Amino acid sequence: MKNFVWLVSYPKSGNTWFRIFLSNYLNNRQTPVNLEEIESTPFAGNAALFEEMTGLNPFECTPEEVDYYRPDIYRMISKELEQISYRKAHDAYTLTTNGSPLFPEDCTKAAVYFIRNPLDVCVSYANHSANEVEKTIKLLLNERSYIAGKSNGQLRQMLLSWNSHVESWQNQTAIPIHFVRYEDMKRRPVEAFGSVIRFLGLEYDEERLVRAIGHSDFKLLRKMEEETGFQERLQKCKSFFWKGEIGNYHNYLSDNDIELIVDYCNGIMKKFGYLSADNKLEI
């Protein structure tokens, strides 16, 4: 049975926000779900799960060895599932050392890809990881970029560059995929979130949709984090739910920073409406 739905994104692109919305939509309560329920959402890069399924300590293996096992782990989990499982992933769509896709087609129903202006991704991820903007720019533009994998509870996840991360999922044909822009989630939430509900084949109920969007309001999430904390916040980061604004990069990136990112990500930024045909920023 194809029962995995991968919720994919480059970090800080709206993945967690959507998962909170989806949890609210699926639970269909009159009150918001708490953040603890979101923290328990299955994650593709979970190191504890890898060790449980294989008996191997992933941090005593090479990242390539770990990736070799991951497709079969997902297959084994899939066989035990009786319903759809929504799972967060930050990995680019890559192949293992034996040429198999990291995310196997035979147990995957679909994927949803959350894309955000890389300029805003840059400043948001710099805040999240408590890094300087210049270091984060290098991460976004490095074709061998990865995160985690250093005994911190998460497996190594290959990101590639921001550009290649998007292209890797856009160019694969094995898994049905739906792209949704972070900016549309902010500006046209009913349309954007609703498009995902329809793509996933879930029952569409606009009243329920609007309520779930309201229960996922950024100010509400920030308040909940202040009251109860949130495990996805890195230790050096003051708040996971920081600003969530569109165009926040204007306050943090120099003209040279913007030019570097735009030059490297030009084609994808144009395709998804972040740049005009004559290279003017649209957002």
Provide a brief overview of the structure.
45% of the residues lie in helices and 10% in strands.
Describe the structure.
With 283 residues, the protein is an alpha/beta fold. Helix 5 packs across helix 6. It has one domain: Rossmann fold. The chain has 13 helices and 6 strands. The strands form 2 sheets. The protein has a 4-stranded parallel beta sheet with strand order 2-1-3-6, sandwiched between helices. The protein has a two-stranded antiparallel ribbon with strand order 4-5. The chain starts with a strand and ends in a 12-residue tail after the last helix. The model has no long low-confidence stretch (mean pLDDT 90).
Features of this protein?
two-stranded antiparallel ribbon, 4-stranded parallel β-sheet, 283 residues, alpha/beta, 6 strands, Rossmann fold
State the shape: globular
Which strand order does the major sheet show? 2-1-3-6
Secondary structural class: alpha/beta
Q: What gap, in angstroms, lies between the N and C termini? A: 41 Å
CATH topology: Rossmann fold
Instruction: State the helix count.
Output: 13
Rounded to the nearest angstrom, the radius of gyration is 18 Å
Mean pLDDT: 90
Percent of sequence in beta strands: 5-15%
Largest pleated sheet: 4 strands, parallel
Question: CATH homologous superfamily, by name?
Answer: P-loop containing nucleotide triphosphate hydrolases
Low-confidence stretches: none
Order of helices and strands: EHHHHEEHHEEHEHHHHHH
Please identify, by name, the CATH architecture. Answer: 3-Layer(aba) Sandwich
How many domains is the backbone divided into?
A: 1
Report helical residue fraction: 40-55%
CATH class: Alpha Beta
Number of strands: 6
The oligomeric state of the chains shown is single chain
